[in-house]
Amino acid sequence: MDEFNFSDNAGAHRFELTQGNQLAAVAEYKLDGGVITFTHTEVKPQFQATKGLGSKIAAQALQDVRGRGLKVVPMCEFIARYIVKHAEYGDLLTDEGRLRVEAAAKTSPSPAP
């Protein structure tokens, strides 16, 4: 299986994972100054059997954001829940972002014992 390539398609306002010339997953965003608001994350239907693509694009997008010195508002429930599970990204959150992650933590299923 080919590798997945990560990129920021700034013109389309989304991070992308591609395999060859096929779009596998996206994390859409709005950029306003030093704040990036994640609005939607999606793994394309033909790639949904590939485990972990949502988490892969979330992690790479958040690493990219960290490298740019941006702050995060996760309007997208998937990104908010990803940050709940990966607290190392908590420092990227704005105050509004922190509230969104706290709300997602309350609605996330409890981890297995």
Short description:
The protein has 113 residues and is α+β, with helices and mostly antiparallel strands. It contains 3 helices and 5 strands; from the N terminus they run ββββαβαα.
CATH class: Alpha Beta
Order of helices and strands: EEEEHEHH
Question: Which structural category do the helix and sheet elements fall into?
Answer: alpha+beta
CATH superfamily heading? Gcn5-related N-acetyltransferase (GNAT)
What gap, in angstroms, lies between the N and C termini?
Answer: 34 Å
The strands making up the biggest β-sheet line up spatially as: 1-2-3-4-5
**What does the radius of gyration come to?**
14 Å
Q: How many strand segments?
A: 5
CATH architecture: 3-Layer(aba) Sandwich
Biggest sheet descriptor:
5 strands, mixed
How many structurally independent domains? 1
Morphology: globular
Strand content: 25-35%
Task: Round the mean pLDDT to the nearest integer and report it.
Answer: 93
Indicate the topology:
Elements: E1 5-9, E2 14-19, E3 22-32, E4 35-43, H1 53-68, E5 71-74, H2 77-85, H3 95-107
Parallel strand pairs: 4-5
Antiparallel strand pairs: 1-2, 2-3, 3-4
Helix pairs in contact: 2-3
Q: What descriptive keywords fit this protein?
A:
five-stranded mixed sheet, 113 residues, Aminopeptidase, alpha+beta, 3 helices, 5 strands
Description of the structure:
It is a single chain. The protein has helices spanning 53-68, 77-85, 95-107; strands spanning 5-9, 14-19, 22-32, 35-43, 71-74. The chain is an alpha+beta fold and 113 residues long. It has a single domain, classed as Gcn5-related N-acetyltransferase (GNAT) (Aminopeptidase, 3-Layer(aba) Sandwich), CATH 3.40.630.30. The protein has a 5-stranded mixed beta sheet with strand order 1-2-3-4-5. A hairpin with a 4-residue loop joins strand 1 (5-9) and strand 2. Helix 2 (77-85) packs across helix 3. The longest helix is centred in the middle third of the chain and has 16 residues, at 53-68. The relative contact order is 0.14.
